[in-house]
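Re: the request from the purification team.
They wanted to know what the chain is likely to look like in 3D before they choose a buffer screen. I agreed to run a prediction and write the result into the notebook, where they can find it.
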Amino acid sequence: MTADCLFCKMVTGAIKPDTVYEDSDVLAFKDINPQAPVHVLVVPKKHISTLNEFDTGNIDLIGKMFLAAGKIARDTGVAEAGYRTVINCNAGAGQSVFHVHLHVLGGRTMNWPPG
């Protein structure tokens, strides 16, 4: 954990997010600035700053993040209609909290190309 990381504070319980899913490896909560009717962030409980820091030692963790995303999509009713998952990597791509996180967005039509 990193003491000044917003998402680490959520993982430790110092800040209480609006949690929608949690297991031993990931925490998922509603985004405070939603860009869709369903907008949930899935974060690993282990602090990893960006997608660039994932390595073969994190393969299971990446899989668990995506499994959680699928469960969240089903639980929120957007799985069948469709949903988008996004991981922004570094500031140029829009990452504002440097604790890797997977966005799960649904409940509206997604345009292409994004952003």
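For the purification team: The first helix runs from residue 6 to 12.
Please add any questions underneath this entry.
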